[in-house]
Structure formats: C-alpha cells, structure tokens
Write a structure and sequence with these properties.
Rossmann fold, 18 strands, alpha+beta, six-stranded mixed beta sheet, binds adenosine-5'-diphosphate, binds magnesium ion, OB fold (Dihydrolipoamide Acetyltransferase, E2P)
Length: 331
C-alpha cells in the first residue's frame, strides 16, 4: 500500500482547565496536490490540529507522519515547523514593514544564486498578481495586499504543503475571492498541497477538494464538500455550511411536515414561495438584500423560516404568501 502523504495517527493534544479542550485522539490522511479545508466552530480545535500537522506543537499521544517519517515537535527541532511546509496566519508580523514588497519576498531565498533569486521572485509576484506592487513598502499596503506578501514569502521557498489558518479574515470580499482563485490555480499548476482552516462556508465550499468537520476537538465527518453540503450526516455540519432553518419536531408538525425526527433542517434554496389567493399562512417579516438575490424571513405561528428569493421586487415586507418545501433533512 502506498505511504500516505501526510498522516495523523491517534494524535491528541489536551488542554485541561474547567473544561478539557484541544484535540481528542484523531486519525487523518491528507492527500497530495489537493486543497483540504478544516471547518468547525470557534474553539473546536482547528488551529491546534493545524499546528500539530506542521510540528509547531507536540502531540500528547500519537504521531504525525510526512511521507512516512515522523514530524518533530518544537522541543526536538531548532526552528519549529517542518522544512517542507509553510504556514500563513492572520498575523503578518514577520513582514518587514519598511522594506519593499520585492525584498520581503526575495529575502526568503539564500543569497547564493542571484539570477535564480531574481527570476523566482519575479515569478511569484506575477503568480500572486503583485508585480505592480514590487516597489511599494509593505507599510503602505492594504490588509489584503499584506496577506498576499505573506503568501508570497511562503510560496517562494517552494514548500510541499501550504498551511493557511484563517488567512483571509481581514481581507475584503473581492480581494478574498481573488486570493482563493489564485491559490486554486497554483495548486493546479504546481501540485502544491494546501490545508486551510476557515469558518467561512463560501470559502471552504468554493476552494476545497476535501472537507474535514471538527466539533469539540474531534472529527465529526469528512468528505467531498458537495456531498457534505447536500447530505450532511450531522445537523452541526449543516449549520456550519449554510444559513439554514432548524425546526423542532413540534414546530415541523405545526408547519405541516410529517416527521418522527427530533429536528428538521431546511436550506433557504429548498423553499419555494408563491402568492396565492387561498393559502397565505406565511407573512414576510423581513427582506434581506444580498446583492444577487435576497433572503426572506417568513413567519407563521411564531415560527421563522429563511428562504431564498431571486425575483427582486416580487414581495414586500408584510405580504402573505404560500410556502412549498421541496426538501428537508431529518436529525
Ligand atoms: P479553533 O482554532 O478551532 O478556534 P483552537 O485549536 O485554537 O480552536 O483551540 C481549541 C481549544 O483549545 C480552545 O478551547 C482553546 O481555548 C484551547 N486552547 C488552545 N490553545 C491552548 C493553550 N495553549 N492553552 C490552553 N488552552 C488552549
Ligand atoms: Mg483558530
């Protein structure tokens, strides 16, 4: 059997306090040349897992293997972190603010082959669409641009794995999508392996080949993002991936849904609303403009449901409508 690219075997790291936290015993394989996203609510152990995979933290038990070889923890290594990996976080502290973008990126390479250094810096800046920023000082850049310099510094050393810990949080939406796209392109072109931690559903769904869902320090489920989105095994996953409505059994029954499940989950796009002369049980309480579509908050018998509407101007707040459910999930 082939040796896994990056593997965690029964790895745990527990912080004891009022409540135990960290990462429970975890097994995991990361495939080469893919983007793996780790998603979970705040405090679920995402950063802990990433730091264990990189070798910034030593596990209490178990081990992490990169191409079959154990990764050394910070106590065993002079410069913490595996040499074949690079990590980018929200902090861009290690940038030299008063040096130019070019020098910030180029200085990651040794001084031995100046031609190679020049070529590689040029290539990375081009890849990250930063060529025009080369002569600007980092201190004069926006948050998103700084983040790109940090990624450039990581990529120029040709790591085999790029670890990203919520790197785009401070970056505005348009920049964020650009960066996500660039990283996907680099993965396709170079075979780079990326592990990204995020709590932004749009980000993980659009970027990841593989999704890992963490809850309270354990992997709850994992797999293809499309499959996890359409049919999550757990309500927790559905709630992380979409702005869904969760109804108790009683509430579901009150809405005319026959079910034995304790909870049902309805995604906004599974609801069809219609104007009707005879059926107008649901009142449109709020219309939330979302740019390319709008969310409707519908209320009936004290129950609120979120629905997606792409026909602008069809409804006003206060309208009474008929609601049809095409699908729901049971938990
Ligand atoms: P996430 O990145 O998913 O928000 P973390 O991996 O940072 O979560 O943290 C998981 C849990 O472990 C949290 O409850 C956090 O408070 C706790 N934790 C993380 N690092 C430490 C530490 N050095 N000492 C004590 N508790 C920690
Ligand atoms: Mg974190």
């Amino acid at each position: 059997m082939a040796i896994p690219f990056l593997q965690a075997i029964a790895v745990s790291k527990v912080y004891s306090g009022i409540q135990e936290s960290g990462l429970q015993k975890t097994d995991l394989v990361i495939n080469q040349g893919q983007i793996t996203a780790i998603i979970g609510e705040s405090g679920s152990g995402k950063s802990t897992l990433l730091r264990l995979l990189y070798g910034l933290l030593s596990p209490d038990k178990g081990e992490v293997l990169f191409k079959g070889e154990r990764i050394w923890g910070p106590e065993e290594k002079l410069i913490p972190g595996h040499d074949a990996m690079k990590m980018v976080t929200q902090q861009t502290d290690d940038l030299n603010l008063f040096a130019k973008v070019w020098d910030n990126v180029a200085s990651m390479l040794p001084h031995t082959d100046l031609k190679a250094k020049q070529d590689k810096t040029e290539k990375i800046l081009k890849q990250l669409k930063m060529s025009s920023l080369a002569n600007k000082r980092v201190v004069d850049l926006s948050g998103g641009e700084k983040q790109r310099v940090a990624i450039g510094r990581a990529l120029i050393t040709s790591p085999e794995i790029l670890l990203l810990d919520e790197p785009f949080n401070q970056v505005d939406t348009s920049f964020r999508e650009g960066l996500q796209h660039i990283i996907r392109e680099i993965v396709k072109e170079t075979g780079l392996t990326v592990i990204i931690v995020s709590h932004d559903p749009a980000e993980v769904l659009s970027m990841a080949d593989e999704l890992i869902v963490l809850k309270q320090g354990s992997i709850l489920e994992s797999g293809n993002p499309k499959i996890l989105y359409q049919a999550p095994q757990f309500l927790y996953t559905a709630r992380l991936l979409t702005n869904c409505t969760i109804l108790t059994n009683d509430e579901a029954k009150a809405c005319g849904i026959k079910t034995k499940a304790a909870h049902i989950v309805i995604y906004p796009e599974w609801i069809k609303t219609m104007k009707s002369w005879t059926h107008k049980d649901w009142e449109i309480k709020q219309i939330l403009f979302k740019g390319c579509n709008e969310d409707l908050l519908l209320e009936n018998k004290g129950i609120t449901i979120r629905a997606l509407n792409d026909q602008f101007g069809k409804y006003s707040e206060g309208d009474k409508v008929y609601l049809k459910l095409n699908k729901w999930l049971e938990y």
